[in-house]
């Protein structure tokens, strides 16, 4: 078992974690990044082609982008551990991070970048056609379904925002919701109802995703009130029933907001505990983009450097 002390431990990988590691490593802090045992690299490892990350005019596969970030972090001296954090003690000047395999790490600062996970439908065909019609990010994948029928599942703000965005691309957009009332704000509902390219199937749930030749083609829908089953053509199925930030391992060590995301101090990446910073989807319930997560990972690293140098001013820490 390892029991070592670091300047900084980064919990979580993905764009935020790897970017934080790159910045900390280049500043000479030799960061330790605990990437996770089962899902290192965040949600992008389950994404096919990424066309909206700057610097890749021809696009790049999600796993390839994460591999490149990992290599860049290691190039500057980041040590990566492929394990899951199971508990933390973040009080005091030295923080303690315990991993699933029993290794314990002590650090003067901690950056949390564990992200969030999408809530899935849990129906037959969802996993099979993930990345081949089933998607959890309209801004990432909407363009691929230009001129094709699209389904959005959900009834909250995210579902309506995705439906509005996807209406620019799809031949039609059908929003499916299990009730006849929506959780979304009125202005979003009104906007969708006035959009000729958006229609609604209410009191209904998706029972199955079907397809051929490796691509989704339709969804099976059941009306929860009548029991009637129907099939709706759909090349793109966008699931927008929410996200769950990955914070259980914290055990209440950090303050969370009313949605369960890590709360930050103002526009900084400082959490409720001195010396602990957070970035990416574990704090962001709005944007959830790779490029915004990477930018926040940079900010977390700079905030951590300011903390480690004993100054409140980031510019002083960098000079």
3D architecture notes:
There is one protein chain. It contains seven helices and 19 strands. It starts with a strand and ends with a helix. Strands 1, 2, 5, 6, 7, 8 and 19 form a seven-stranded mixed β-sheet that branches. A five-stranded parallel β-sheet has the order 10-17-11-12-13, with helices on one face. It has a three-stranded antiparallel β-sheet with strand order 14-15-16, with no helix packed on it. By secondary structure, the chain is an alpha/beta fold. Strand 14 (204-212) and strand 15 (215-223) form a beta hairpin. It has two domains: 6-118 and 243-318, FAD/NAD(P)-binding domain (3-Layer(bba) Sandwich), CATH 3.50.50; 134-239, FAD/NAD(P)-binding domain (3-Layer(bba) Sandwich), CATH 3.50.50.60. The radius of gyration is 21 Å and the shape is elongated. Helices cover 23% and strands 28% of the residues. It catalyses: [thioredoxin]-dithiol + NADP(+) = [thioredoxin]-disulfide + NADPH + H(+). Its EC number is 1.8.1.9. Homodimer.
Defining traits:
alpha/beta; FAD/NAD(P)-binding domain; seven-stranded mixed β-sheet; 7 helices; 19 strands; 23% helix; elongated; EC 1.8.1.9; thioredoxin-disulfide reductase (NADPH) activity; FAD/NAD-binding_dom
């Amino acid at each position: 078992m390892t029991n070592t002390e670091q300047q900084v431990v980064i919990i979580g990988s993905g764009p935020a974690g790897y970017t934080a590691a790159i910045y900390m490593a280049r500043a000479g802090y030799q960061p330790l990044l605990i990437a996770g045992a089962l899902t290192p690299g965040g949600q992008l490892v389950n994404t096919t082609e990424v066309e909206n990350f700057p610097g890749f005019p021809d696009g790049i596969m999600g796993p390839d982008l994460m591999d490149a970030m990992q290599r860049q972090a290691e190039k500057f001296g980041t040590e990566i551990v492929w394990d899951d954090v199971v508990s933390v003690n973040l009080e005091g000047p030295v923080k303690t991070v315990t991993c699933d395999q029993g290794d314990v790490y002590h650090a003067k600062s901690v950056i949390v970048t564990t992200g969030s996970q999408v809530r899935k439908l849990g129906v037959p065909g969802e996993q099979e056609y993930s990345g081949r019609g089933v998607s959890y990010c309209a801004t990432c994948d909407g363009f691929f379904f230009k001129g094709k029928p699209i389904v959005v599942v959900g009834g909250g703000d995210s579902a309506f925002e995705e439906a509005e965005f996807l209406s620019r691309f799809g031949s039609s957009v059908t929003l499916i919701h299990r009730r006849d009332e929506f959780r979304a704000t009125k202005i979003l509902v009104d906007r969708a109802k006035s959009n000729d390219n958006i229609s609604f199937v209410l009191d209904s749930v998706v029972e199955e995703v079907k397809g051929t030749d490796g691509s989704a083609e339709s969804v099976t829908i059941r009306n929860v009130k009548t029991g009637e089953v129907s099939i709706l053509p759909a090349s793109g199925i966008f699931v927008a029933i929410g996200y769950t930030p990955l914070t259980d391992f914290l055990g209440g060590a950090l303050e969370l907001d009313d949605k369960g995301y890590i709360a930050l101090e103002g526009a900084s990446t400082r959490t409720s505990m001195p010396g602990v910073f957070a970035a990416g989807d574990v704090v962001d319930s709005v944007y959830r983009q790779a490029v915004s997560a990477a930018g926040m990972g940079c900010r977390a690293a700079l905030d951590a450097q300011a903390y480690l140098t004993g100054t409140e001013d980031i510019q002083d820490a960098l000079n």
